[in-house]
Structures are given as C-alpha cells and as structure tokens.
Amino acid sequence: xxxxxxxxxxxxxxxxxxxxxxxxxxxxxxxxxxxxxxxxxxxxxxxxxxxxxxxxxxxxxxxxxxxxxxxxxxxxxxxxxxxxxxxxxxxxxxxxxxxxxxxxxxxxxxxxxxxxxxxxxxxxxxxxxxxxxxxxxxxxxxxxxxxxxxxxxxxxxxxxxxxxxxxxxxxxxxxxxxxxxxxxxxxxxxxxxxxxxxxxxxxxxxxxxxxxxxxxxxxxxxxxxxxxxxxxxxxxxxxxxxxxxxxxxxxxxxxxxxxxx
Amino acid sequence: xxxxxxxxxxxxxxxxxxxxxxxxxxxxxxxxxxxxxxxxxxxxxxxxxxxxxxxxxxxxxxxxxxxxxxxxxxxxxxxxxxxxxxxxxxxxxxxxxxxxxxxxxxxxxxxxxxxxxxxxxxxxxxxxxxxxxxxxxxxxxxxxxxxxxxxxxxxxxxxxxxxxxxxxxxxxxxxxxxxxxxxxxxxxxxxxxxxxxxxxxxxxxxxxxxxxxxxxxxxxxxxxxxxxxxxxxxxxxxxxxxxxxxxxxxxxxxxxxxxxx
Lengths: 261, 261
Hints:
By secondary structure, chain A is α/β, with parallel strands linked by helices. Chain A has nine helices and ten strands.
C-alpha cells in the first residue's frame, strides 16, 4: 500500500528541482528496471506488483534492495507511462563525472540544446548501440533523469555517462588535432569522407541547429547527402537531430571500428 | 473572431473519426503551412494572426484561399502545439492512391505498425530527405493526418504519398525479384552489403519489431552493426525504428543514387 506521502514523493521526481534536491530519479517498467538492477547505479527502492516480485524476488534479495508490493491501481497513481508496467524504481543520481580530459581513443557526443526528451533518449540509445559512452550536453538541454528521457533510452541510461557543461568551454579546452564533426550545409559529403581517428560529434538543437558560437570549433564539417529527382519543386530542409546523429555515428563507426556484436 | 462552432470543428479534427468524416486535417505553424500552400494539397481555410496575414496576404490572394484573422488567444484555443505559431490551416485529405503496382525503379518504405506519431512523422521526413515518395503503412499504424504526425514531418507530409493497406497482401502481390529489405538480428551486415537495385524497406514497430507473418517476405535481411568494447556486461538491444530506418535509407541511397542536392 502506497501512502499519500510516498505518492507525493514519487510524483515530485517528475520535476527536475525535486530530482536534484533528492538526488533521485524514477525508472519504470520491466525492461528499464532490469537494466537498472544490472548496472552500477544505486537502486534506493522498488515498488512492484505481486507478479513482478514473484518473478524477480531472488535478484532483489541478492542485491539487498527494498521492494514494496503495490497494486496496479497504485502504480497508475505514480506512473509516467500511458500503460504502467509492473514496477517503478527510485534510483540514485550518480555524482557527475567531468567531461574533460577527453579520451581521444573514444568517440564522444556533444549535444547542443536538445530539448525534446524523446530525442535526447533516442540519441543516448543510439550512442550506446555504437559503443559511445560519454555524452556531453549543453546546460540548456533536456535532463537525462526526466522520466520521458529515461524511458526513451530503453535501458541505455544505465550504460552511458551523460554530463552537463558549458559546451563552448568544453570545446575550447580540447587538445589541438582532435576532430570535431558537425553537420553543416556546407560540409563535406558524408559518403565521401574518410575517417582516420575518433573524435567528437557535435549535434545541434531541433529548432536552431548548431549555435553560432560553436560552429568555429567544427574542423570536420559533414553534409548528409539528400537525394531526390529533378521533378520536385521543394525538398526536405533538414533531418531530425536524432536521425542525423544516427547516420553520422553509423558511418564513422563503420570506418573506425571493426569489432561488432 | 472564432465562433464557438469553429473552435469545436477545428478541435474535432484532432480525432481520426472526425478527420475521416470531414476529409480534413489540421496543419499548424509558419513552416508547415508554407509547405502546404506550396504543395498540390487543397487548403480549405486558414486562421492566422495579423502579423502572418501582413506577410503572406498576397500568396493567399493568388491561391484564392479564404483566410480569417484571429488573435493569439484564439489560436491557443485550437492549437495542438505547446507554443502556437501564428497560423493554422484546414487542409483536405486527398483521395488515397493505391500502393500497387509498385514502381520498381524507386525505393518504397513499408511500415509495420509504427504507432508513435513522432516516430511516424520523423520517418516520413527522413524518407523525403532520401527521395522516397511512397510510404505504405499497415492499417494499425498511426494516422499521417494526426496533428502530431503532420508536425513531426516538418513539411514532408506535403511531398510524400502515405498509403494504408494490408501489408501482407501488398508484399504478397509484388512481382518476383523485388528486393524486400528488413532489419533482422540474423541479417547480413549493412556495412558489407552491396545494393544493386531499388526495393522496399520494411520497418517494424517500436515494440514488436517486424510481424512474424511479414518476416518470410524479407529476401534481403539486414543487420546494423553494433559496436562496443569487451568490457561491458550488457549492450543496447535494439535501435529506435526511426533511427534504423534513417541508417538503412542512408546506406542504400548512397549506393544506388548518385544525384544529390
């Protein structure tokens, strides 16, 4: 049985201010909670249906995680999902790792003002697929611990390191010679580029693209080719930020990394 | 000034049943309405702020479109956007074109149960970027005329032909030898595939992937390589449907089409 105070507390974590105050965030649903329990992140508490507890009880004992049994109806009162899914966890927000020094043997994503939670979550999920662990977000980006972002990562929130910082400062303090890739209309065709070393992929916001103040840091501008026949009078003007990111990650990783799973 | 009945009518178009009944849908915001007015689609009526009308009045006269002046406050009452943007149009749903016969000189997308409006819109926008005009959706997919889908296409709704049909029937009636590409765990590495002719890209739903009954139609299974170091104990299980679609479109179009804009 969920008390009024518990309902209030869980729902408060849908708001950034309270997540920061309590250093806690919500993880919902079977898949995401499984990924949470398998990760290094600390699970403070679980609220789950009888069905879920019967299936997962032994893992909880092993991890020494407190789990409170609740009904589907109670879950509905605290869930952020349209269709609540058996379990909701309260996890601890880890201490932020710095983004510097940048490990130049690895790819890194830098996100400039991604505000849509679904886009941010999808970008984190894609980064994880391509083996990119560190994602540096500008301070104006959506919060990775927003339940909608956590949900959209499909578990990848537990395997990636998302850092918030002043991107201008971050890019200004990189060592010389680090490639900074960014999609620009005047970039080189992605289909013709040869990538020789890992670097930083800079992705602009959904509505404003890459900020003017960050464009000078791009030393490897990229253009994703657009195909169409001559008969059209107008064309798509741009790709969604998460799609552009997916295509760029795919092409760079294909050229640089030979090991796949 | 918007009448009570006008407000009721516009808001009713957020529901599929009423869109079908009135053969009408909503297009919102400067960019999308511009794309609508530049397209072959029929604009039945416009509601816009003074500011928008002053800027666009001459185009309306040329196109003979009725435009009613409304205030920002009135726009708020009918808008589906968090931040309403100057103009809302009522457009006519065109008569559906059939998906067959399939023109085998062109790429085509087949979407199997994409239910998230944002995903569907993003997929249509990506298709448009890569010069793919025809998108065949299974009957259980989200409705292209849902305002959230229209919005996510960023204008591409006006340049693409989205058809709803029984996908099994559609695939069963293709001529022999037409490539049907689909992402499957046991597919051939996309990075190693050589594409020699256009075909159909089959994309599965966000939650269930490609339906069992459609899998036998895939004659060119694809696997998008996943990269990661050995040190991890778990990996991302899949990519978002719209990201997988973007990467597959990119690689196929890169190999098949030399003309870009």
